[in-house]
């Protein structure tokens, strides 16, 4: 009888440990996503100033600028799911990347002090976003592993935990960033 | 970084004439030490015979007492004779190499990093009883403030027999420089022994390390193989430890072949490279007139001075410029 209670006690401890570990991983994902959201918001806040300072120079990129503005408005809606935010961020990052390449064709803009400051700030925020994406992906990987591996997957099934989506890290973010080049153009 | 050919030229053109004089001093000291060794060896044999035959001491006791005291006496003579040579070596070799690699750097052979720098790094949180060092190098490399020195930090403990002994907490090179990014929280990177030996159990034990912050997992398999990272904020830890920086840290670990400890505190990077010997001391038995011997010091100092370029600490982000 005593052995039965010991075994029962150990099993109960394992269940509690698994439950707490899954809750902690879920919270970790949410916390990091909140951090990522905060950095994304910093970028959204910067965009109106950036667009205002480039639109009079970049006359041939009007369409891109309008798309960026539309994406920003969409992204600032409060009722978005995390996967929608991820998709919007991906699209916006790609458009901004293209815009910064197009800047090369506008020498007067490249010499504008205000624009250079905004560009520098944007690059810094991009670095923070990249870090937040990586941290988020790592926490999601830990979470996904926990809900798919035995025996915690049984507990995850009872808790109705579902797999989460990770960000696709653009290949250029995995390469060595040449900061000097970025800022000394 | 200066090329090898120019270092060889510098060695033969600028250092060699002075080293020839210093080499004479070295040969005199070596000769004195050889004589002392011979004399003390004879002394040990006589004492041993006296103790063993006249005082009927056991073989082991007589041997330990005679040869032990001879050895102690030899070490005393060695230290006494080599002390002056060591100082001259630092003036004529170490300082010259440093100034060749970067003339703007200052070298202080008797000074070392202040204790508060060591404490602030949070690399070694154990209490210590003795803090010593030497060979402080400081200055600006490519506009980045840098300091490094040889450091020896120890703690005192009592053995089971009640004997007092000293144990190393850290012995090796301690490097501190301005980091190229601003950050608010601290990140500590330590050698990963537990996970390498114990696997998942090791990783679990690391996450239970209450003396440190949260265990941060990073997305670089090779880096994770060598290091364990603790930080307060996972996002900021990833912000500091970019893929490029992790790759450079792994390269430094592989190049030095030593245990590497890093921390990022108050917009500074602290690096501790573990060596179990005094790094800037001369080896009395090696000739100064052979470049291969001097090359070891050149390579070590080049590696340290090259950390700024290697980690691209001079390429500051917008807000730090």
The proportion of residues in beta strands of chain A is under 5%
Helicity level of chain B, as a percent range? Answer: 40-55%
Helix content of chain A: over 70%
Low-confidence stretches of chain B: none
What structural category do the secondary elements of chain B indicate?
Answer: alpha+beta
State the end-to-end distance of chain A.
77 Å
Q: Uncertain runs of chain A with pLDDT below 50, 5 residues or more?
A: 173-185
3D shape of chain B: globular
The CATH fourth-level homologous superfamily of chain A: LemA-like domain
What integer value in Å does the Rg of chain B equal? 24 Å
Main sheet: strand order of chain B: 1-2-3-4-9-8-5-7-6
Global geometry of chain A? rod-shaped
Average pLDDT reading of chain B: 89
The protein's oligomeric status is: heterodimer
What is the CA-atom radius of gyration of chain A, in angstroms?
22 Å
Number of folding domains of chain B?
1
The major β-sheet of chain A equals: none
Question: Would you write up a description of this structure?
Answer:
The complex is a heterodimer of chains A (185) and B (321). Chain A has 185 residues and is mainly α. Chain A has one domain (27-183): de novo design (two linked rop proteins), CATH 1.20.1440. Chain A is 78% helix and 0% strand. Chain A has 8 helices and no strands. In chain A, α2 packs antiparallel against α3 (82-102). The longest helix of chain A is centred in the first third of the chain and has 53 residues, at 2-54. Chain A is rod-shaped and about 85 Å long. Residues 173-185 of chain A have low confidence and may be disordered. Chain B is α+β, with helices and mostly antiparallel strands and 321 residues long. Chain B has one domain (4-182, 267-320). Chain B contains 10 helices and 9 strands. Chain B has helices spanning 4-54, 59-101, 115-121, 194-198, 200-207, 221-226, 234-240, 243-256, 291-305, 307-310, and strands at residues 106-108, 130-141, 144-158, 164-178, 187-191, 214-216, 227-231, 260-265, 268-274. Chain B has a 9-stranded antiparallel sheet. In chain B, α1 (4-54) runs antiparallel to α2 (59-101) and α2 packs across α9. The mean pLDDT of chain B is 89. Chains A and B meet through α1, α5 and α8 of A and α7 and α8 of B.
């Amino acid at each position: 009888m005593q052995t039965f209670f010991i075994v029962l006690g150990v099993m109960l401890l394992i269940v509690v440990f698994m439950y707490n570990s899954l809750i902690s991983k879920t919270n970790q994902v949410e916390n990091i996503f909140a951090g990522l959201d905060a950095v994304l918001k910093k970028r959204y806040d910067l965009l109106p100033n950036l667009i205002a300072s480039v639109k009079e120079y970049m006359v041939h990129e009007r369409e891109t600028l309008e798309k960026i503005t539309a994406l920003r408005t969409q992204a600032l809606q409060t009722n978005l799911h995390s996967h929608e935010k991820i998709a919007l961020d991906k699209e916006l990052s790609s458009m901004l990347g293209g815009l910064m390449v197009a800047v090369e064709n506008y020498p007067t803009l490249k010499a504008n002090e205000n624009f250079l400051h905004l560009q520098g700030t944007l690059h810094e925020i991009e670095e923070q976003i990249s870090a937040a994406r990586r941290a988020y992906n790592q926490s999601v990987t830990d979470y996904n592993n926990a809900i798919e591996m035995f025996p915690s997957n049984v507990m995850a099934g009872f808790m109705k935990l579902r797999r989460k989506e990770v960000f696709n890290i653009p290949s250029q973010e995995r390469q060595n960033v040449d900061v000097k080049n970025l800022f000394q153009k | 970084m200066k090329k090898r050919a120019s270092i060889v030229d510098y060695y033969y053109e600028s250092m060699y004439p002075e080293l020839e004089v210093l080499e004479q001093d070295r040969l005199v000291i070596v000769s004195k030490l050889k004589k002392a060794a011979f004399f003390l060896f004879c002394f040990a044999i006589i004492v041993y015979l006296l103790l063993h035959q006249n005082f009927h001491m056991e073989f082991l006791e007589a041997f330990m007492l005679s040869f032990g005291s001879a050895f102690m006496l030899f070490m005393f003579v060695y230290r006494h004779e080599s002390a002056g040579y060591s100082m001259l070596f630092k003036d004529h070799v170490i300082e010259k190499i440093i100034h060749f690699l970067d003339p703007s750097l200052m070298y202080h052979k008797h000074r070392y990093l202040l204790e508060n720098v060591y404490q602030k790094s949070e690399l070694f949180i154990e209490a210590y009883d003795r803090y010593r060092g030497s060979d402080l190098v400081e200055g600006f490399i490519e506009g980045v403030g840098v300091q490094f020195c040889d450091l020896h930090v120890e703690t005192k403990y009592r053995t089971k027999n009640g004997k007092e002994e000293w144990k190393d907490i850290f012995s090796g090179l301690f490097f501190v420089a301005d980091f190229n990014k601003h950050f608010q929280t601290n990140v500590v990177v330590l050698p990963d022994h537990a996970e390498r030996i114990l696997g998942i159990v090791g990783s679990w034990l690391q996450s239970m390390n209450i003396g440190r912050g949260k265990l941060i997992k990073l997305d670089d398999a090779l880096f994770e193989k060598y290091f364990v990272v603790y930080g307060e904020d996972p996002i900021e830890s990833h912000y500091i430890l970019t893929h490029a920086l992790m790759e450079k840290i792994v390269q430094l670990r592989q190049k030095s072949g030593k245990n590497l400890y890093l921390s990022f505190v108050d917009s500074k990077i602290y690096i501790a490279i573990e060596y179990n010997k005094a790094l800037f001391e001369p080896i009395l038995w090696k000739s100064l007139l052979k470049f291969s011997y001097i090359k070891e010091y050149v390579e070590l100092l080049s590696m340290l001075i090259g950390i700024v370029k290697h980690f691209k600490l001079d390429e500051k982000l917008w807000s730090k410029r």
